[in-house]
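> @MW can you paste both from yesterday?
MW: sure, first one:
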Amino acid sequence: MDGDDSLQIDQTEKAADRLPAESWQEQDMNNCISLAKSSPISILKKNGLLQSLAAGVSTKEPEDLNQDLKRAQEEWDAVESIQPGSTPQNRADVFVGQLPSISFNEALQHFQTADLSAHMKNIQVTASRTGLFAITRLLFGPPRLHRDLQEERNLVFAIAQCSFDNNERVHTRVLQTVYKKLTGSRFDCSRYGSHWEEVGFQGVDPATDLRGTGFLGLMQVLYLIMNPQTLPLAHSIYKLSQHQSQNFPFCAMSINITRIAIQTLREECLNKECNRRKQVVGVVNDLYVAAFLHLHHIWKTQNKTISDSGLVLKEVEDVCKKNPKLILKRLESYLNKEHSVLDATLEDMSSLHPSSAVTGQSLKLDLPSGVKETNFTGVCELAIEMEGETRLI
């Protein structure tokens, strides 16, 4: 045994003597490593070869170090552009960088030009009725929706069938716009994380809350916060949702309001108003806003809490289905009142600064050829008399 060790020591010492004194060359280095692998660690350490090998392997050219530093800096810059948030395992964070905000017009145009044929096959445009109830509804129920509006109605139901798609840029922009507009943040946030609970989603993934309304649940809250006429109301509702004792999940409640709007349209309760205004998307959006206003009034004046949410939503749904004309008129009165206050404020500002003027300008949406433009920007353009009491409660 001792003889074998002595033989290995002699072979190793001879190999060490043959190694050049200058820097290691690649061929000599490989030969030495092969020989060293067959020698015990104690022998390598004794002859100083272990230290030499370690020093040779760890040597790195300055050019390689500069490339590593550059790559690390690029990765750090990418991290700085997003806010931190927890990401579940096996899920990629699709929100890297800064996405521009999106308007309701642009988001709607996306769905008008997208291929929704697969979703169109699954939509239910009217509530199913049988027997005497179906006959009564036919004779004494609401009027049929005009034929030229049925395509627009089907589009609403198709959007309600669309799931959130991480690979669709418009989807991610809508979600990011909702977050930034509600929180006042100037930066995008992670696709998954507890920060979504801040705006009223019920978990780390907002998409799971959209199962009952599809993407229409995000479209309608986008309409609420991006419409200058309804933005003050959105701020008021969101502020109430953050109340210490009357708080509620804002986006989850909004999705429930969207569900009510979908069901009201499906039961043909909005046909008369759609026919009068010659549009569907605008009427459904206004009903959504009106229903949210009604919920806000009940919640605030009657000191409701989250434990009352089921009863309050049921009351809002009953009003929407039984008298949508009344609840839409209340929204119109509310907005007119808000505009009167705003006009008075602007008039006072003009008297202080005569050179300044505030003008309004309607935006026209440019659509590709062959795509029908959908009118929706008018809020509650009603010219009818109200029925019953004007009080919300």
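MW: second:
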Amino acid sequence: IQSAYRGFKTRKDLKESGEDLPDLKAKDVVNATIKIQSAYKGFKTRQMIKQHKEIMPDLNCAQVNDATLKIQSAYRGFKTRKDLKESGEDLPDLKAKDVVNATIKIQSAYKGFKTR
């Protein structure tokens, strides 16, 4: 109740003094608002991390690294397929003779690399 009254009183005092509130759609006010909000969100995030530090996973753990790699590779595949679809380029015909020959050459080079 007190905060509602204080807000009312402040708005009333501003109106009586003749000072106008800033235009909330002005570019400088919008930029300042975004900067303040991002600083506050960063502060709250850091505060939450500090409180829940024991809940955070160990980033050097092998399981976390494996999960990270899987997520990243899935996203990269998704992004590549999306880019190909948007650019209109078709995927190569996998049954074409030159593609089959290139595939065999790459596979044999990789198998040789793995055995050495």
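> thanks! The chain has a mean pLDDT of 86.
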